[in-house]
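Saturday, quiet lab. Running sequence design on the structure tokens for the scaffold JK sent over.
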């Protein structure tokens, strides 16, 4: 009985052990399956990592080649870079000097502009002064011309009055305008070597100035021609008078007229 009990107990223990072993086997199987999955995943990641490493190695190789090319190019370019740096430094120094020169020129320009403005002001003042002086000179010149004209008129009147004026019935005068219009025909009121006094039927137009004079008659023989100028006009109630100055006459005509006037005197 005791042995049977021991056998049964032993069977129970073995069954428990078997169950535990089965559970343990199942646990290890799950663990192994998990490890297998992890291993597969690790193998996939390892493949990806190897591919990445290979790609990185290719890039690294390309970069090394590029670096080598750049280093070689840098060795070739380095002297030119140094030369360019020296040229840059020289250009900077030239630029500093040019800026200094520009500032100096700018100051000179401002000074000259100020001097020019002052000179323009002075020139403008001188111009106004010169205009004032010129106006005074013009006024004085006009005044002098007026005085000279007045003196000349006085001289001519004195000259005319110095010549004896005579009424000569044997002298006939014709006075024509420049366009040929007959202004006077008849015996002058009085005659001298310098002019005629005319009794007119109508007043002489103010626009008339130079005239052609012809003097003829028994006292002179051949007609005397002269160029005259109307110097005065006068109109009364029923009579008009005018004065004609003889400006240009031939020497023979002047001599003939002088002889005729002397005979009348």
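Result came back. Writing it out in full:
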């Amino acid at each position: 009985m005791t042995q049977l009990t021991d056998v049964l107990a032993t069977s129970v223990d073995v069954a428990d052990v078997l169950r535990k072993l089965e559970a343990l086997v199942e646990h290890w199987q799950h663990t192994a399956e998990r490890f297998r999955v992890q291993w597969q995943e690790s193998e996939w990641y390892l493949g990806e990592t190897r591919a990445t490493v290979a790609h990185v190695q290719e890039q690294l190789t390309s970069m090394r080649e590029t670096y080598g090319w750049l280093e070689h190019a840098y060795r070739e370019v380095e002297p030119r870079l140094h030369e360019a740096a020296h040229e840059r430094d020289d250009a900077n120094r030239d630029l500093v000097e040019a800026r200094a020169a520009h500032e100096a020129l700018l100051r000179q320009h401002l000074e000259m502009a100020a001097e020019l403005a002052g000179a323009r002001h002075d020139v403008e003042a001188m111009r106004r002064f010169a205009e004032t002086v010129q106006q005074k000179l013009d006024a004085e010149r006009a005044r002098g011309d007026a005085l000279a004209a007045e003196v000349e008129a006085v001289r001519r009147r004195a000259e005319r009055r110095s010549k004896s004026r005579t009424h000569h019935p044997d002298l006939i005068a014709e006075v024509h305008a420049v366009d040929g219009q007959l202004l006077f025909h008849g015996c002058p009121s009085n005659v001298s070597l310098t002019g005629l006094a005319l009794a007119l039927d109508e007043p002489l137009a103010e626009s008339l100035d130079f005239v052609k004079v012809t003097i003829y008659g028994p006292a002179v023989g051949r007609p005397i021609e002269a160029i005259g100028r109307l110097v005065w006009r006068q109109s009364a109630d029923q009579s008009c008078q005018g004065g004609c100055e003889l400006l240009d006459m031939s020497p023979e005509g002047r001599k003939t007229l002088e002889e005729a006037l002397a005979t009348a005197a």
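Notes for JK: Confidence is low (pLDDT under 50) at residues 158-162. DSSP finds two helices and seven strands in the chain. Ask whether to fix the surface positions before the next round.
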